[in-house]
Amino acid sequence: MLFLSVIVVILLLTLQIVRSATYTHSTEQFWRHTQTSASVVEDKIQNRANLLLRAAENLAKNFSIKQLIVDAKADPESLLVAMENQQQRLKADIFFVLDGQQKLLSSSTGQPLARAAGEFSLRGATWLSHGNKVYLLKGAPVKFVERSRSVDAWVLFGYDIAQLINEELMQLTGMQVSLFQPSMQNQILGSSLASARQHQLQQSDIILGNELQYVQLGGQRFIYVTKAYGSMNAMPVYILLATNKDKAYLSYNSLLVQLVGLLVAAALLALLAAWLLSRGVTKPLSRLVTATNKIRQGEYATTLPETSTVEVNALSHAIRDMQHGIQQREKQINHLAYFDELTGLPNRNQFSDHLQQTIDKASDKVMVLMLDIDRFKEINDTLGHDMGDHLLKLIAKRLTSFNERPAFFARLGGDEFAVVVEQCAMQTPDCIAECIARMFEQPFSIDGLILDVDSSIGVSVFPEHASTTQGLLQCADIALYSCKGKHYDFAVYRDELNKHSLQRLNLMSELKEALNDGQLQLYYQPKLSISENRIASVECLIRWIHPTHGFIPPDEFIPLAEQTGAIRDVTKWALRTAMAQQHSWLQQGLDMTVAVNISAIDLIDMELPTLVSDLLSEFACEPGMLTLEVTESAIMSDPQSAIRALNTLKRMGIQLSIDDFGTGYSSMAQLKTMPVHELKIDKAFVLELAANQDDQTMVKSMVTLAANLNLNTVAEGVEDEPSLAFLRQIGCTKAQGFYLSKALPIAQFNQWLQVYRQKSEEEASA
Ligand code: C2E
Ligand code: CA
Ligand code: CA
């Protein structure tokens, strides 16, 4: 449209300029034409006037005519015949012969000349109105004596004006010629115009002059110029050259028609060009814009326009290539976003999506199984990450070969896998879980290495346990967690598990903070050296005084911390606090051995020995003043590594004690190889020692056994004096229990110790 309007404006301007230039040119041209025409008319009249004048002058010198004039009174007939001869030769329309007194001697009409003859002997065009006609009249004086001053007669010839303004003149000039006298109310002397127009012309207000003027004649516009030429009755006569305006501008008009035609053709061509441009560029471009908008919205199937325009085609191809590139990359991104790179299994994202879709359209129960590899971290640590990765790939491969039911497998991360199975009435969750657990019965072989891998599986069921993907995953996770460290391969979710786990999860998230905030404290419980009757050691027991939950017993959060790995921080903190306290006692002159509890996880932590030795040097503490208590079950869960770690610690000079002894089924043979200094008899055997015969037997044999192995014994859970007496009697090294004191915060412990010492000193002196 813009293109077209620009073209139209240019064309209209061109038209206007050309039109006005051509008009001016045409007008000028026409004006020149009128001037030439006027000259032609003037020439023609002048020629005729000269012809008449010369004829009259010649005749006036003719003797025979002179004779005939002299004899005119007597013989008018001869003069008339002679004059008529002359007239015929001259083709004149009228003649007069007058005597010296202007009296008529002879004339073609028989009528006298109403004007003085002298008027007509002068140069120029002189006109005579005679009868009802107008004549160009010229005459010459006749002198009988050549040199005489007086005129003896006049001969005059005239042409009818109608003979002058004839068809030939009109053809020659191409104009209408009129002679008129402005001073006589525009009286028309002669004209080529039709009589009606002549009449109108006479009525019109004719403007004299050389300029082009317009007049309306008979419903048509005429253009004219006037020019003074000759006279009649001593009044000037004007020539008026007129022509129909349309005729005058005929060439201009046809030029204009051609021009308009040309411009229309140009406009049509422009329109065609605009159309081609629009078809070849504009429209494909706008289709490209639509296509790119679609691509932006992720619609890729769009066909891109092909045109004849090279540039647009190039752009179109570039966009198509770009679209292809985007598509490819999107695929890649999609793959990265939805698949696990290592195993090629769907990842957590896709798993969530799939689970969501499955439960959205589920008509039956849907099972979610979460699976992780027991001791995978150990495999990774000991065999290297490449082996670990290889194992994960093999596991993924084996899992996908599961064909009991259509199942969707995914790797959620680390050694965690998940499965969605739509349950049917025939198969219970236990059934499916068992099937999957059985897949781990065969060992895996990596580079000739045979690996026996166990898995733990947690199962949750939609809609029984949860109705959202998140909920189902959480339940499965809780169930999985519940079978960790137990003897079964899988567990199906139960509500009891959740309550526990929620609290648990919360607690664990707060533990780190608690360590830094001083919510944790060490309490000290004295150990009595029975033979010396002296307090020379304490056990450090941790307490968590939570700002909202209040007192949380260590039995509740220590196992959790062991499972999450947070125990390392707890141990580190307990060791540091205990040693700092030991150092402070030392400065007060108190030699007090501190016993700190460490767990199984700490035992396999390679950093523990370094940590301990760092702390020992930091607090300038004798290694022999630190006892580490490790439960018998912690040692028995992985005796080899435990013994390795204990050996390292023993070499450093640290005292080691087997806690809760008697509950962990250690054999005599194992006990012999254990690098420890002390057995700590579990309180289960001690609490009712005074009354229970069986306990007495047990404790006595344990003390004997320890003595044989050169180990000290500590009885914990001593609640009364008879128990202590029994222990003293059988030779137990130390006693610990409520009978002496429960574990106390440091200030109270110090107080208690002071009181206890005073009392025992008094007893000793007594
Ligand atoms: P444990 O090492 O066997 O500690 C002895 C537990 O028996 C303590 O309970 C103590 O208060 C209690 N006890 C002492 N004498 C008597 C008594 O005469 N009668 C009765 N009924 N109980 C007595 P507590 O402090 O609740 O500690 C429970 C367990 O928490 C500890 O058992 C230990 O395994 C663990 N624990 C405590 N502090 C730490 C720590 O710092 N690190 C680690 N890893 N474990 C800790
Ligand atoms: Ca202990
Ligand atoms: Ca114990």
Characterization of the model:
The model has no long low-confidence stretch (mean pLDDT about 90). By secondary structure, the chain is α/β, with parallel strands linked by helices. The two termini are about 125 Å apart. The longest helix is centred in the N-terminal third of the chain and has 60 residues. Bound molecules: ligand C2E and calcium ion (2 copies). Ligand C2E binds next to strand 19, helix 16, strand 21 and strand 23.
Task: Please provide a brief summary of the model.
The protein is of the alpha/beta class and 766 residues long. It is built from 25 helices and 26 strands.
Whole-Å distance between the termini? 125 Å
How many β-strand runs?
A: 26
Assign an overall shape: rod-shaped
- Tell me about the biggest sheet? 10 strands, mixed
| Poorly predicted parts | none
- Helical fraction equals 40-55%
| Mean pLDDT metric | 89
